[in-house]
Amino acid sequence: MKIFTFLLLGSVLGSASSLSLKEILNAANHNNPLANSIAQQRLFLHAKNLSETASDPIELHASSSYARPMGISSVLEYSMGISQNIKLSEPQALDKTMTQLNNEASLIDESKKRIAFSNGIKNLYHQHCLDRRNYESVQKSYQDFVTLFEKKKKAYEYQEVSKMELMQLEIEAQRLQSQLEAIQREQQLSRSQILGLSRIPLSSKKMLYCQDGYPIKNTIHLPSNAFSLSTEAYNKRQESSKTAFKRASKHFDSLTLSVEYSNEYEMDKYRVGVSIPLHFGSTKSQEARVAALHQNTSLGFAYEEEMLQKKTLSSTLRSQLKSDALRIQSLKDRLQTYKKELLPLLKRSYLLGESTVIEYLLNRQNYYQEKQNLFARKKAYYHTLFSLYTLHEIKDNK
Predict the structure, then answer these.
(1) pLDDT tens digit string along 314-337?
(2) Residue 24 and residue 195: Cα distance in Å, rounded?
(3) Was domain 15-391 assigned CATH 3.30.200.20?
(4) Fewer CB near the last or first residue (10 Å), C or N of the chain?
(5) Where in the chain are the domains?
């Protein structure tokens, strides 16, 4: 019970001084300029829609003339008036709806960038955690080898091993140290990348928690509403094209009212007028309806092609995930056998003088290379996994 309590306390304290994946995602999304950009773009498009579909301003017009008829004294004539083009309520509402639907579709497309950003952060988080585990593994291997090397140095002093053998061990120790330093730099770089994208100060001493990663599975179960954002954007654009067809079917969409006062030959005149465009005398409305129909059909074909490409790529990524997961399990099984059975046997054989130092070092290098293959395969798995999530437009709160 005491051991359990100690372990639990250690886990809590560890997580308190580290950054979980959820905390990093919250920081990244809160400080992400893309989110603010989308919010401002939404306001911009709404204001632009209202501006473009608003009624035209009242126009003021005035004129004057100087007349001097034959045999009559000169006369100053003038006139002034106002006019306004008034959009009928239904066509105006259709214009607003059409533009609003297109704007909403564009914003949905922009929101997919946020999903890609979040999944990119998740991928970087897993890549860093793998880098760190790789560093810890290589560090332990290096320390074990240094211990062996120190023993062999003492044995050399007693002339129990040859100078050649000691030099080979020293070269191997230097090689392992170089590899360890390279892996450490890679780990530090991946940490800097994820902190930079999350707008977390690089001076932060907190480590990444790395105990909340996604497990590696042969089969991934994805939500049934795949590509939901693309489908939603397509539906809005299709609805907009239908609205455009309905809008083009309106023969009367506006009228112009005018009021004018004029003074001619000392006579006051008042005029009231109305102007109505007669669209049935033009093919403009007909051509607009044809354009809307073609646009609707084009949207349908484009959406069909997009879904075909997404489903094909999804199938490829799923197959790659399964292949990587099976390969990872195979490598883990082989490494487990190597570590538990073959390596101790080889080390014992070398210490007893039954095998040469070259054989021992070659087998150690083979084991190290297999471990590097395992880490590389895991990295590839997570890269593919989050590419698949981005493709399916999946965003969760983990």
Answers:
(1) 999 999 999 999 999 999 999 999
(2) 8
(3) no
(4) N
(5) 15-391
Residue 266's closest CA among 70, 67, 62?
67
Angle, alpha carbons 388-394-395 (nearest 5°):
125
Q: What is the per-residue pLDDT for 72?
A: 65
Q: In what order do the strands lie in the sheet with 254-264?
A: 59-67, 75-87, 254-264, 267-275
Q: Which residues, at least 6 apart from 391, have a Cβ–Cβ distance to it below 8 Å?
A: 310, 313, 314, 317
- Is residue 194 within 8 A of residue 132, CB to CB? The reply is no
Overall pTM surpassing 0.70 (yes/no)? yes
Q: List the Cα angle 182/185/187 in 5-degree steps.
A: 110
Higher pLDDT among residues 54 and 375, named by residue: 375
What one-character DSSP code corresponds to residue 72? S
65: left (phi over 0), alpha (psi -120 to 50) or beta: beta
Amino acid, single-letter form, for residue 352: L
The span from the CA of 80 to the CA of 269, in Å, is 11
Residue 227: pLDDT over 60: yes
First-last CA distance in the chain:
31
The tens digit of pLDDT for each residue in 92-119 reads 899 999 999 999 999 999 999 999 999 9
pLDDT for res 210:
95
CA distance 349 to 309: 57
| DSSP calls for 209-258 | --SSPPPP-SS----SSTTHHHHHHHHHHHHHHHHHHHHHT-S--EEEEE
Write the pLDDT tens digit of every residue in 154-201: 988 888 889 999 999 999 999 999 999 999 999 999 999 999 999 888
**Distance separating alpha carbons of residues 270 and 143, to the nearest angstrom:** 104
